[in-house]
Design goal:
347 residues; alpha+beta; eight-stranded antiparallel beta sheet; 7 helices; 18 strands
Length: 347
């Protein structure tokens, strides 16, 4: 992980790319891309692969700065620190053409940086990020919207979407995403005692993989979804990343535990037809692991309405957090985003 002079930037930048096209030969689509090509793109962004796992649905990579998930017609990259994530968009769109796929939807999201002055071009401002995306996205993605979703605190949620004007919500390539939701929980000011569990002892004799497995177990992260295949990694001297795969669904956790700028994030996907209590129980478990003083929850649905967000307040309020704001916004052909913020009930 690359440390800025002011401290490590925990808040991730996230890009989600959807592609259309047919791959009748193998059905693997983007998963056919040579790993060396992906590595080259990641190096441009300024991160590397430290661990990986896959199943019949997708490939998952833990990065030196967060995560990469590759489906046949969808790709998700999250990077933290001072990475230049948006530099990956055009190369990935070009590489996809080699396996017969065309970029048809792009979604870029991020929170408010802790150290905005440390961010390099093109991440110096949301306005600059929008300009960069508009200059580097293919011409067919002409239906665009950008929004800054405000809250009662200084934390804001930045969303930019672009899609093919003829795209029908949920019918992208070989996969229908209209029944999916994605939840992102961003937490700051973690409980210091719990945060220390994500630091390694000097000369502990462990590898990043073995230390990561221990952190997954002792912190309770293993219990968030006991069915998931876990790929985890602990950085030296501190920091932690995890990707989990449960069928076609993914989850990921990233932790920056340093005092003064501690941060943790959790992200997962699911079906809008799941029991609503599922997302509420997961949210409660995640908050219990980190006990943050402030957090935000962003829930994105692509097609079908999902009301699971309504119970989040009820799930985490008993943990000493109160809802401070809730906003919702529609993005044409790119779904709906509900953004909620919480803070502790005490000073």
């Amino acid at each position: 992980m690359t440390m800025a002079v002011s401290g490590f930037e925990g808040f991730e930048k996230r890009i989600e790319l959807h592609f259309s096209g047919d791959d009748p030969a193998t059905g693997k689509g983007l998963r056919r891309l040579d790993f060396a090509l992906l590595e080259k793109v990641l190096h441009t962004v300024q991160c590397t692969v430290v661990s990986a796992v896959g199943n019949k649905h997708l490939d998952s990579y833990v990065l030196s700065e967060s995560s990469l998930f590759v489906y046949p017609t969808k790709l998700i990259i999250k990077t933290c620190g001072t990475t230049q994530l948006l530099k990956s968009v055009r190369p990935l769109a070009d590489h996809a053409l080699t396996v017969g796929l065309t970029l048809c939807r792009c979604r870029y999201t991020r929170g408010s940086f802790i150290f905005p002055q440390a961010q390099p071009y093109p991440h110096t401002s949301f306005e600059q990020e929008i300009v960069y995306l508009e200059e580097h996205l293919p011409m067919n993605l002409s239906c665009k919207k950008a929004s800054i979703m405000n809250s009662e605190s200084s934390h804001k949620w930045h969303v930019f979407t672009a899609c093919d004007v003829g795209l029908t919500v949920g019918k992208v390539g070989m996969h229908a995403d209209d029944d999916l939701y994605m939840v992102e929980i961003c937490m700051t000011e973690l409980d210091p005692v719990l945060a220390k569990k994500f630091s390694r002892r000097l000369n502990d004799g462990k590898t990043g993989d073995s230390a990561g497995r221990e952190m997954t177990r002792v912190t309770g992260i293993r219990d968030i979804n006991k069915n998931a295949i876990i790929c985890d990694y602990a950085f030296d001297p501190c920091g932690y990343s995890m990707n989990g795969l449960d069928g076609a669904r993914y989850s990921t956790v990233h932790v920056t535990p340093e005092d003064g700028f501690s941060y943790a994030s959790f992200e997962s996907s699911g079906s809008v037809y799941d029991c609503k209590e599922g997302i509420l129980e997961v949210s409660k478990k995640v908050v219990e692991i980190f006990r943050p003083r402030a957090l935000s929850v962003s829930i994105t649905t692509c097609g079908a309405r999902y009301e699971g967000w309504r119970g989040v307040e009820r799930a985490i309020e008993p943990l000493g957090l109160r809802l401070t704001s809730c906003t919702s916004e529609e993005f044409l052909n790119s779904g709906r985003v509900v953004f909620q913020t919480f803070t502790t009930c005490w000073k």
